[in-house]
Amino acid sequence: MKKSPVILIVEDNPGDVRLIKEALNMSSFEPTLYVVRDGFEATRFLETRMQDGFPHLMVLDLNLPRKSGFEVLKFVKRNEMLKRIPVIVLSSSQNPEDVAKAYDLHANCYLTKPANFEAFIAVVQALEYFWVRIRNL
Q1: Which of 7, 33, 64, 136 gets the most CB atoms within 10 Å of its CB?
Q2: What would the pLDDT profile of 30-53 be if each residue is shown by its tens digit?
Q3: If you average pLDDT over every residue of the chain, what do you get?
Q4: Residue numbers of the domain that contains 105
């Protein structure tokens, strides 16, 4: 049996946080979820977790206060201890430049937030299915 995953959600929109949590909590794995509301909190969380272990997966919005998602992504992927954490960008931006920049900074996946509830839940559940159930973390 696989260990329950630890997932860090970096998202400032409370509605999106609620939807992500609802979708992930439907999992039989019962993940441990941590939520931070801005880029600065994300980097601080990761710095303080260095002694306790890192999340198995990060779900990252790009449009964040204080530090952008791009800055968080750069911080994670340039840090020797953090760079193996899979980072899934979940953003409302469909701008090809944002997608390219996220992949240039070594995002593991870029997903656009769907506009309706059912599609949003389906995207998060598909993310969980692949990144938690199938892939070795």
Answers
A1: 7
A2: 788 899 999 999 999 999 876 677
A3: 88
A4: 6-134
Q: 54: domain CATH number?
A: 3.40.50.2300
- Specify if 1 maps to a domain: no
What is the distance between the alpha carbons of residues 27 and 24, in angstroms, rounded to a whole number?
6
Res 1: pLDDT: 41
Q: Which is nearest to 120 in space by CA: 1, 41, 21?
A: 21
Beta strands in 4-113 (DSSP E): 6-10, 32-36, 57-60, 87-91, 109-112
Number of domains in the chain: 1
Closest CA to 71 of 85, 61, 84: 61
Distance separating alpha carbons of residues 104 and 14, to the nearest angstrom: 28
What are phi and psi for residue 113, nearest 5 degrees? Answer: -65, 125
